[in-house]
Amino acid sequence: MMSAGPDKFASVPAAIDGDALLLPAWAEALVATVPAEIAKVGNVALQTRLTDDVSLVSARVARAADLASHDFEAATTRMYDLIAQRLSSADASHPVRFWNFIPGIHATSGVMPASGEVLDRYMVFNAGRYAACRQWLGGEDAFPRLLATASGVGHDGRDLIIHALAAAEPGNAVENPRQVPAYKYSHRYGPKPPCFARATTVTLGGRQRVLVGGTASVRGEASVFVGDLRKQVGETLDNLAALLQSATGDDAAGPHLMSDLRVYYVRAEDLAALRSIVSLACPAATKEFVRADICRQDLLVEIEGVA
């Protein structure tokens, strides 16, 4: 079913405000010279690039935003299942990082069965991801050890795209002591919680790295400093520091150790301020800024990257 072919995903990425929402440059560089294998399984398009040390599998469902809620959930589960199947035969088979690009992330998508509360598309996506991760990892008890880190942001297009980066050896999940693990969130955030670790430590390309997932102004499980960009960025940077300290055991670790950053921002008018604040906090890092919708409507910024 797999066949070698051109990198078609590079020419049809999800787009936000006219800018291609591709993988971060550091991740793309790991497989940039590897030919892509292209396949189609039902309505899921798959692209795979494999080396002995790293695998990158991308899945896409065109016009997923047009699907009914239960079909969108099923499509999410199917995409994760197909990624798991493809990685199972790769030399680098251990997932360490996911990027999820979700169309219309805040769109109303049904109601919660028990309470009647409105569900948005991110909650529906999380239900599909939860089912897949539970099957893939062998149950919820494995989540603290085996969940990979991730980001999940919204875009204005119609397609659902998931990228999975895998390594030859398992990574180690890292949590932030200032936050509730995402997979333990209450039903306030949907019938099933988001399935990801806050960070993953792993060896990639012969280097020990800390892969930092999408980090925002969340304390415990609640959004804080709603409406205040500068305070939200400050809280996000504090969370990055706590996360890196947990990952490295170094109390002096902080965002200044990041080598590559991607900053997702909601409002175009915030970009100049964000560039200034982030540059001061992380002067040595390569930085990407991408307009996107964050998973909660009260969050203005999310930062991910590598240390």
From TrEMBL:
- A Pfam family found in this protein is FkbO_Hyg5-like_N
| UniProt protein name | Chorismatase FkbO/Hyg5-like N-terminal domain-containing protein
Give the species.
Answer: Humisphaera borealis
- List each copy of the Chorismatase FkbO/Hyg5-like N-terminal domain by range: 46-166
